[in-house]
Amino acid sequence: MSSELFYSAAALILIAALVPCGMIATTIFGPRSKGKMKNEAYESGIGPVIGAVDQKFSVKFYLLAILFLIFDIEAVFMYPWAVAVRELGWFGFTEMVVFMLLLLTGLIYILKKGVLNWR
Question: Which Gene Ontology cellular component terms are annotated (predicted)?
Answer without folding.
Answer: NADH dehydrogenase complex; plasma membrane
